[in-house]
From TrEMBL:
Similarity comment: Belongs to the CapA family.
Protein name per the record: CapA family protein
PANTHER family, sorted: PGA BIOSYNTHESIS PROTEIN CAPA, POLYGLUTAMINE SYNTHESIS ACCESSORY PROTEIN RV0574C-RELATED
Superkingdom of origin organism: Bacteria
InterPro entries per the UniProt record, alphabetical: Capsule_synth_CapA (IPR019079), CW_Biosynth-Accessory (IPR052169), Metallo-depent_PP-like (IPR029052)
Length: 458
């Protein structure tokens, strides 16, 4: 598909947002105002309570201060203050086997979606709101800095290098950038389990990583991982449960998997700098239909049928200031997104209220699209992964998005070179070539020589 002829992606109609998204943003702003008003009322009630308590105490003590001088009357209570924030490079490794072959989709690839979409948020999956994480400081009108990377594998040959060089080996050149984000997110392309046993042998590539690798992963700056992909169930349901347990013990949030549909399709909500962020994980690549979450059976949040993801996104868009979707989709090593498996789905997510859609699975970098007021990053490629024979899989990146209320985001891409599982700064000439190629692959957006990604029509 030639990207000079962008009609195959759909015309570049960036004149304005769709009516559906406009209405979603209106409701979101109204919801945000209601939350802020409720918070203000709570502060005022506390202030009134302090004044009343002070007056009662003053009356009981005769109206004198501790040193016997009369207190001066004050018509105003204390002014509410701002909330406080809570407290050597290794030698080149030997060439490993290529572990990125296409697993195939099997019976899971059957399409069940229809053209009919729910026009109003429903009560299905995503209707139960989990506990909100509040690791950052509050404050109205703030902005958040998000950092995204592509596929991460901490086992197989990567695990061998971690044992040799230390669990912090992959993050030498990137941890400063990751730690500088308010929220750093990766696609975790592996089970992380202490359960033993041989590989099941049901797929060509079955990935398992050592739970001891997670503390260094967390220390490097990562906060949240997507589990909705084609490897987290490689070692079966108990290994996925073990993965979620180890993530939680390492204080890492996870999305895209659960014991029930409600759990798997419910986003994680994170509050940072006065903004409420909803993060989803969906996959359109599973090797067997049994991997799909059932109403009351463990599995992954899939999007072969987009109905439930769209419904859940619409609901979250009314409750959050920013909606992020991590999507595992597309075809391995394809530089251009698939029209149905990626482009159509990504646009449906944005129409439903997603502000950022960030893709993985192709193992190579793909272009960006500005659509309907939202952003779609079709694939961020590999970040920490086993080495393949395809040099395009060595191109890694960190995508930074600085966002405000209502999905107002500015994007910047920092390329890295990762022919080993240690992403390193990319040589300038190669960086220039990569960014120019991504610019050509993008629709409704331009990628400049500094990695800034901007809408074509703004």
């Amino acid at each position: 598909m030639c990207y000079n002829d962008r009609m195959q992606w759909g015309e570049k109609e960036q004149v304005g947002m769709s009516r559906t998204r406009t209405e979603t943003m209106r409701r979101r702003r109204a919801s945000s105002r209601r939350r802020k008003l409720a918070a203000l009322n709570a502060v005022l009630l506390v202030a009134v309570g302090v004044v009343v308590a002070w007056n009662v105490w003053a009356s009981n003590s005769g109206g004198d201060t501790a040193d016997g001088r009369p207190m001066q009357e004050s018509a105003a209570g204390p002014t509410p203050g701002e909330s406080e924030a809570p407290d050597d490079e290794a030698a080149a490794p030997e060439e490993p086997a290529d572990e990125m072959g296409d697993d195939g989709e099997g019976t899971a690839g059957q399409e069940t979606s229809t053209d009919g979409e729910a026009t109003e948020p429903g009560a299905g999956p995503g209707s139960e709101t989990p506990e909100t994480e509040t690791p950052g400081a509050g404050g109205d009108g703030g902005r958040v800095k998000l950092a995204f990377v592509g596929d991460v594998l901490l086992g197989e040959y990567v695990g061998t290098l971690l044992e040799r060089h230390g669990f912090d080996y992959p993050y030498t050149h990137v941890k400063g950038q990751l730690q500088g984000a308010d929220l750093a997110i990766a696609n975790l392309e592996t089970s992380v389990t202490s359960l033993g046993g041989e590989k099941p042998g049901k797929k060509q590539y079955e990935f398992r990583s050592d739970p001891d690798a997670l503390p260094a992963f967390k220390e490097a700056g990562f906060d949240l991982v997507n589990l909705a992909n084609n490897h987290t169930l490689d070692f079966g349901p108990d290994a996925l449960r073990d993965t979620m347990k180890h993530l939680e013990e390492s204080e890492l949030l996870h999305v895209g998997a659960g014991e029930t549909m409600d759990e798997a399709y419910t986003p994680v909500y994170v509050e940072k700098n006065g903004l409420r962020i909803a993060v989803f994980g969906f996959t359109r690549v599973v090797p067997d239909v049994s991997w799909k979450v059932g109403k009351n059976s463990l599995g992954l949040a899939e999007t072969y049928d987009y109905t439930e993801p769209v419904k859940a996104i619409k609901k979250a868009a009314e409750e959050a200031d920013l909606v992020v979707v991590m999507a595992h989709w597309g075809e391995e090593r394809a530089q251009e997104p698939h029209p149905e498996k990626q482009v159509d789905l990504g646009r449906r997510f944005v129409d439903a209220g997603a502000d950022l859609v960030v893709g993985s699975h192709p193992h190579v970098l793909q272009g960006f699209e500005r659509y309907g007021g939202g952003w779609i990053a079709y694939s961020l490629g590999n970040f920490i992964f086993t080495k393949s024979k395809d040099p395009l899989t060595y191109e890694a990146a960190i995508l930074e998005a600085e966002c405000g209320e209502g999905g107002d985001c500015s994007l910047k891409l920092t390329p890295y070179f990762a022919d080993t599982p240690q992403p390193q700064p990319m040589p300038p000439e190669r960086t220039k070539e990569l960014l120019a190629r991504l610019d050509q692959l993008s629709v409704g957006a331009s990628v400049d020589a500094e990695g800034k990604i901007e809408p074509d029509d703004e």
